[in-house]
Design goal:
alpha/beta, 7-stranded mixed beta sheet, 7 helices, 14 strands
C-alpha cells in the first residue's frame, strides 16, 4: 500500500529573518543552500521509497492469483533446504492499522481441466494415469503410529468469518498465536479423524515459526527425523499449511468448494521433487498419494480440491516415503471451513489405507 510521505514537512523554513548579502559570497551561499536542499530532497525521497517497498510494495505478500486460482510465486532466499522458495511475508504488523481487506469467494478447483490435471513446476513429466492406479504400501499396523502431522508454519491462520470485507492489517488477520484459529486447530481435526478410524496418528504441536518463517523448514526437519527415530512405523508425514491468494488489486481470495450440501475450504497438495542440496527420492509415491486423494475427494462432482502442484523443491518430503504438504484453504477461509476440509482428508486417507 502506498504511503504518504510527510518527511518534507519537517524541513525548517524561516521567513522571519532576511539577510541581504551582495557580491560573490551571496551567490556562493545561495548555491550551497540549493545543494543542501537538493540533497535533503533526494534523501527524503529515497527514505520514502524504501519505506514503501519494505512495508507496502505490490509484491509484499509473495503470491498473486488470477481467476484460474493458480498463483504465480516470487522466489526469495527463505527456503527449506538451501534453495529459493516463495516467501512468507504475511507476518503481523504490516500495512495500515485502518486497512480494509476486500475478499472475494471463488472456486479454485479448475474442475473443467479434469481430475488428472497437474500444475507442474518441476522438470519431470510424470505419468499421471499410472500414478492414479498406484496403491500405497503403508499398512495400518494396530497400535503403532502410522501418521505424523505437523505444521512448518504453525502460526498461519484464518479470518474469523466469511464476510466480504475485513478490517485490520492483513498480516494480523492471516497469522495468529491463537490455537483455535491457526494450523494447530486444523491439525487436531485431522488427527482426531484418523484416530477415530483406527489409524494411529501423532500430532506434533511444536511451533517452528515463532521467530519468523526463515529456518522453519530446517527446524521442522529436525523434528521429523526425531519422530521417525522414535516411531519407525511412521510411513506418512503430513505438513499442514494454509494458502494466501491475493490478486493484483489487493483482493484476498477465499476458496470455496462443495462436498454434497456443505461448503468447505479447498485443499491443495504440493509435492516436492528436487532441490539444490536434497532430493525427494519418493516423490512419485507422494505424487500418487496426492493425486488419489484429490480423485476421491472430488468424486461425484465435488470440488474440494485444487489441482495438485508438483514443485521443484523437496519441502522436507525426502525424509519419509509418503509425505504431503497440504494447504487447507486460504487465509480468507474461516477456521470452521478449514477444519471440515481436514476431516474430509482424514476420512479419505483412511479409505485409501484400508483398501486392499
Amino acid at each position: 500500500m502506498e504511503r504518504e510521505d510527510r518527511s518534507l514537512e519537517s524541513l525548517p523554513v524561516s521567513t522571519s529573518e532576511k539577510i541581504k548579502i551582495e557580491g560573490g559570497f551571496q551567490r556562493k551561499k545561495s548555491g550551497f543552500a540549493t545543494l543542501l536542499i537538493g540533497i535533503s530532497l533526494l534523501t527524503a525521497l529515497f527514505a520514502a521509497g524504501t519505506l514503501w517497498i519494505r512495508k507496502g510494495g505490490a509484491d509484499w505478500f509473495g503470491e498473486h492469483a488470477g481467476i484460474d486460482g493458480t498463483p504465480s510465486q516470487i522466489q526469495t532466499s527463505e527456503n527449506p533446504d538451501g534453495t529459493a522458495v516463495p516467501p512468507e511475508k504475511d507476518s503481523p504488523g504490516n500495512g495500515s492499522a485502518e486497512e480494509i481487506v476486500s475478499i472475494r469467494t471463488e472456486d479454485l478447483s479448475c474442475s473443467s481441466l479434469g481430475i488428472a490435471y497437474l500444475q507442474n513446476e518441476s522438470v519431470f513429466s510424470p505419468d499421471v494415469q499410472s500414478l492414479l492406479a498406484m496403491k500405497p504400501d503403508g499398512t495400518v499396523a494396530g497400535s503403532d503410529p502410522l501418521v505424523l502431522i505437523l505444521h512448518t508454519h504453525t502460526s498461519e491462520s484464518y479470518f474469523s468469518s466469511d464476510a466480504a470485507r475485513a478490517e485490520g492489517e492483513l498480516g494480523d488477520l492471516a497469522r495468529s498465536d491463537d490455537e483455535s484459529q491457526n494450523m494447530l486447530a486444523v491439525g487436531e481435526a485431522l488427527c482426531e479423524t484418523l484416530n477415530r478410524f483406527g489409524i494411529v496418528a501423532i500430532h506434533c504441536r511444536e511451533v517452528y515459526d515463532a521467530s519468523g518463517v526463515g529456518g522453519s523448514y530446517q527446524r521442522a526437519a529436525e523434528s521429523i527425523r526425531r519422530y521417525l527415530t522414535l516411531y519407525p512405523t511412521i510411513r506418512y508425514v503430513i505438513d499442514l499449511h494454509r494458502d494466501l491468494v491475493i490478486e493484483d488489486d489487493g483482493t484476498v481470495i477465499r476458496s470455496q468448494g462443495c462436498y454434497g450440501e456443505e461448503e468447505v475450504a479447498q485443499i491443495r497438495a504440493v509435492v516436492g521433487t528436487d532441490a539444490t542440496e536434497s532430493s525427494s527420492e519418493w516423490w512419485e509415491k507422494n505424487l500418487a498419494l496426492a493425486l488419489q486423494l484429490r480423485a476421491r475427494l472430488d468424486a461425484d462432482g465435488a470440488t474440494v480440491c485444487r489441482p495438485v502442484k508438483l514443485a521443484p523443491t523437496s519441502l522436507n518430503q525426502e525424509l519419509a516415503p509418503y509425505s504431503l504438504h497440504l494447504e487447507i484453504g486460504t487465509a480468507a477461509n474461516s477456521p470452521k471451513e478449514a477444519k471440515l476440509a481436514a476431516v474430509l482428508v482424514g476420512e479419505t486417507l483412511a479409505e485409501l489405507l484400508y483398501e486392499p
